[in-house]
Amino acid sequence: MKKMLSALIGLAAVLVLPHVAYGDDNGGNSLRIRIGLSGAQEVPGVITNTTGTLRLDFDPGLSEARFRLMVNDGIGVTQAHLHCARAGANGPVVVFLFGFAPGGVNVDGVLSTGTLTNTEFLGADCTGTTGRPINNIASLALAARDGLIYVNVHTNLNPAGEVRGQLFER
User: Fold this and answer.
1) Is residue 8 part of a domain?
2) Which of 6, 124, 132, 162 is deepest in the core (most CB within 10 A)?
3) Number of domains in the chain
4) Tell me, what's the pLDDT at 27?
């Protein structure tokens, strides 16, 4: 009985720890993703003091997604996007999270917040990097759940990407 109780407590801990949540226990949202960003996740990896987090909340109808992108120790940040590709690979831009700032901005906190709708999609061809189209909020949510989307923050020093975080179900 003691072993069974330990196993149940361990299972409960595993179910509580993930950064992805579904259903009404998530304030009515269908999907909530929180992910950390680092230079080590870039392809190729980047040595940097910059870090970040992305929170992405999809509505129950998968017609919009609210986001909050935090960047710590960001120097000369020029843009940030969601891209479509698996971990360890680079892919095209799907939507902007932070528009192009030619000179770059320094940030230590919130870089951008907003709501994504189907009108923000750039028409990227994701089939080559993910095996499927990603052209609306619903397809973005499913692709993120399956580890096919990453967030990338670009800087003047590292225009290909300073920090990255792969979105996936844990």
Assistant:
1) no
2) 162
3) 1
4) 52
Percent above pLDDT 70 for the chain: 81
Q: Is 10 exposed, middle or buried (0-12, 13-18, 19+ CB in 10 A)?
A: exposed
Task: Give the end-to-end CA distance of the chain in Å, rounded to a whole number.
Answer: 29
Residue 83 or residue 12, greater confidence: 83
State mean pLDDT over 102-131: 96
Split at pLDDT 50, 70, 90, the class of 168 is confident
How does DSSP assign 42-86, residue by residue?
SSS----S-EEEEEEEE-TTSSEEEEEEEEEEEEEEEEEEEEE--
Q: Give a yes or no: residue 4 inside a domain.
A: no
Q: Which distant-in-sequence residues (6+ apart) come within 8 Å of 152 by Cβ?
A: 42, 80, 81, 82, 83, 161, 163, 164
In a domain, 77, yes or no: yes
| Closest listed residue to residue 162, CA positions, set 81, 57, 94 | 81
Does 23 reside within a domain?
A: yes
Which residue, chain included where needed, has tokens 């917040």? Answer: 113
Quick check: 116 pLDDT over 70? yes
**Residue-range definition of the domain harbouring residue 149:** 19-167
As a whole number of angstroms, the distance between CA 65 and CA 97 comes to 11
> In the numeric block, which tokens belong to residue 12?
């409960």
